[in-house]
Fold this sequence. Notes:
Four copies of one chain form a homotetramer. Chain A has three helices and seven strands. Chain A is of the alpha+beta class and 136 residues long. Chain A has a single domain, classed as Thiol Ester Dehydrase, Chain A, CATH 3.10.129.10. In chain A, strands 1, 2, 3, 4, 5, 6 and 7 form a seven-stranded mixed sheet that branches. β2 of chain A pairs antiparallel with β2 of chain B, so a sheet runs across the interface.
Amino acid sequence: xxxxxxxxxxxxxxxxxxxxxxIVNNAVYQNYLEHTRHEFLLKHNVSFSDLHIQGIDxxxxxxxxxxxxxxxxRDEFVCKLYVVKDGVKYVFHQAIYRTPDNKxxxxxxxxxxxxxxxxxxxxxxxFDGLAEVNNN
Amino acid sequence: xxxxxxxxxxxxxxxxxxxxxxIVNNAVYQNYLEHTRHEFLLKHNVSFSDLHIQGIDxxxxxxxxxxxxxxxxRDEFVCKLYVVKDGVKYVFHQAIYRTPDNKxxxxxxxxxxxxxxxxxxxxxxxFDGLAEVNNN
Amino acid sequence: xxxxxxxxxxxxxxxxxxxxxxIVNNAVYQNYLEHTRHEFLLKHNVSFSDLHIQGIDxxxxxxxxxxxxxxxxRDEFVCKLYVVKDGVKYVFHQAIYRTPDNKxxxxxxxxxxxxxxxxxxxxxxxFDGLAEVNNN
Amino acid sequence: xxxxxxxxxxxxxxxxxxxxxxIVNNAVYQNYLEHTRHEFLLKHNVSFSDLHIQGIDxxxxxxxxxxxxxxxxRDEFVCKLYVVKDGVKYVFHQAIYRTPDNKxxxxxxxxxxxxxxxxxxxxxxxFDGLAEVNNN
Lengths: 136, 136, 136, 136
């Protein structure tokens, strides 16, 4: 299999992210996934917060997250992604792997659209350069 | 259409739940969904935290969330649910409606399984009484 | 002792607010305290988020929190407050009591100032009406 | 002035940590401060979560936080600390500096005690080695 991921970010679990089951709370993975997307954009000189000030928002329309294996206190991990453009949608394919053993913890598909001054846009130039196009 | 929801919980957005876009952060909806499931269980005398102490954990295996309309500072809303048992899985169907105008904000399907002392169980009696059975 | 509190808000602990010690995480009490202040202001027709849009921000300069007794899963509680104006500062005195047994869990002193377009203001009319004045 | 800090940890603001004022929410700084304390302990082979399992808990009794300057989206910063033992208390003195300009954002004094099986302990050997003693 060819690894399609084009970006990855390193993290370490923080104790306050764990809940009374002693594992990272399910909602927190969305924080990890979001931060990875925003850092990916920043690396390409696209700032989520600056875009917002200009009236351009990347909006999450849908998330599908599969929880494979829980992260715990002190675990280190990487969050990876690649993006596919599908019509007006930018679909982020993301995965979280515990390190150093490379245990797969989460896979996610995060579907986003762009709004400009609150209206759905057919795309956004700066994002188009980062996405492969779905020709299926 | 017959409304299948069997439980609902009222909420109000708290300002710290909003992010720099001025709307409730996507991850926070998972908090709302989780709290509603736990309160639903409590209403039926099943405590998530007590179960955990007994070695019985309801574990989220998958979430599919569709974000329809954002909640903002001061919005009030209800989170509704019903549960379907499908093999070893308990699938929570949830929705968030802003009140009083009943605007649909989020729909979600949250797939959970039960582990007893860390091992997947075929089900859990107390949950079975709360779920309809999927005969499809 | 005369109870000086002029506002109180009811809460219930949500499981995601508890950490791996099985108690509400220390940082979460600041969320409770903030939400209570904002709801208090709203009750007096002052909206934190609307003020922000107008360039008026209530800014926390200092918090002193004493943790007396931990809240746990399923606990219900009230958060109370009164406000004293002291020079340019509005000092919120807050406390959290578990219900129904009235166990004192947290006391806090939250010192805020008002900025208008980013500059420190000597006060803000709408807040002045809500605060007693410190003549000490 | 001699810098007394004996540990520091690097961070970067994550967008979900910012609130509708566009700055890091006040409660989130407690997360930063806590994570820094726990990583400091880990560096000395003391694990907060392992201790909890053994019935030994480091409990925050009091926090005093002064907010000097807000952190924003994309800011990088370091959180520093040193510890003083004062009777049964371990007092963490912490500060947050934005990098690379070394702007002071937060100072904090976090007073902790140790409980063993829920009872206040006069101290904990592993912590004593990390703290200077207050002879005032």
